[in-house]
């Protein structure tokens, strides 16, 4: 129901004609509407908002052009959420897994409303970094299983131990403090450039120290017990599961803006009711800004439903 400014659309494309699509019919209509008209004349000259609203009210009492998109988005969100809640495995899902399903429903609404965005270089870099971090966690889990095997066999000599990275962290902290002093004292352009370069070098040093710490976070400074290793394997399994979900979420939604429909089109009471009946913390769905914005919706009951009557009120 929307298109970008000056966007070129191929109404003959399959996407507009599959599943009873009317792309060709829409194109033919546009040609008929524009026939013998000047570029300054209106295309839809035989219809006005009053006539359109009167037509929409035939489908639902109170429906107008103003609320059509909001109604459509809210109805779609509720249907998608109910669809997932009806699955047999729903009650076995964790809160994090339920949030993934909510985001999937939100994405369907964003696609419906044409809330697209281009993939930025920063997003690509972030996805690559997450992928690399996930691969490291999986490798660390494999190492932990090897450590447990060594403990079971009584072969502790092959167990890798954590090396102290304290000197790297301290060196990075010193470099950052030194760069800060350089910035405070810098007066000439040359001194300011030198201070900025020192600051960037110090931050890179800190990143490298944190990276070194992350790459041996699964290890111990001394030989661990079997219970310690088992618990850490469980912790790493949970970390991997969460990161896989995060990575999938970011990858699935890199070309779709979920926030626009959530802020402007979807009735927030649908989300609040969904969180309550599924025991999902509302902060997992709405940021603090949105919780403040939609404070009026927070008292809704878990069984609240968006329907034609609600659409009329909106």
From TrEMBL:
Entry keyword annotation includes Coiled coil:
yes
Any coiled-coil regions, as ranges = 169-196
Domain DNA topoisomerase I eukaryotic-type stretches: 2-279
Which is a GO BP term held by this UniProt record? chromosome segregation
Matching SMART domains = TOPEUc
Family membership noted in the UniProt record: Belongs to the type IB topoisomerase family.
| Protein name as it appears in the record | DNA topoisomerase
Identify the species of origin: Cyclophora tenuis (Marine diatom)
Q: Taxonomic lineage per UniProt?
A: Eukaryota, Sar, Stramenopiles, Ochrophyta, Bacillariophyta
């Amino acid at each position: 129901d929307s298109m970008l400014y000056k966007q070129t659309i191929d109404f003959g494309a399959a996407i507009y004609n599959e599943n009873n699509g009317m792309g060709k019919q829409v194109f033919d209509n546009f040609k008929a509407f524009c026939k013998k008209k000047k570029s300054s004349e209106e295309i839809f000259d035989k219809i006005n908002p009053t006539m359109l609203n009167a037509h929409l009210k035939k489908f639902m009492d109170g429906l107008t052009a103003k609320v059509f998109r909001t109604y459509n988005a809210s109805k779609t969100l509720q249907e998608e959420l109910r669809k997932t809640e009806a699955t047999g495995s729903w009650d076995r899902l964790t809160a994090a897994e339920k949030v993934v399903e909510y985001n999937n429903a939100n994405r369907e609404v964003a696609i419906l409303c044409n809330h697209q965005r281009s993939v930025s270089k920063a997003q690509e870099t972030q996805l690559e970094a997450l992928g690399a971090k996930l691969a490291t966690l999986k490798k660390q889990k494999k190492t932990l299983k090897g450590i447990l095997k060594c403990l079971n066999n009584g072969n502790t000599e092959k167990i890798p131990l954590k090396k102290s990275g304290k000197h790297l962290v301290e060196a990075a902290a010193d470099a950052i403090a030194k760069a800060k002093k350089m910035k405070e004292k810098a007066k000439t352009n040359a001194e300011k450039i030198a201070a900025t370069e020192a600051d960037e070098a110090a931050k890179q040093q800190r990143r490298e120290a944190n990276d070194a710490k992350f790459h041996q976070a699964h290890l111990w400074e001394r030989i661990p017990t079997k219970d310690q290793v088992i618990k850490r394997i469980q912790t790493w399994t949970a970390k991997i599961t969460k990161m896989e979900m995060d990575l999938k979420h970011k990858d699935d939604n890199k070309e779709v803006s979920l926030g626009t429909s959530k802020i402007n089109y979807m009735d927030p009471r649908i989300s609040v009711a969904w969180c309550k009946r599924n025991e999902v913390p509302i902060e997992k769905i709405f940021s603090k800004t949105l919780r403040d914005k939609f404070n009026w919706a927070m008292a809704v009951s878990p069984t609240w439903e968006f329907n034609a009557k609600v659409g009329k009120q909106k």
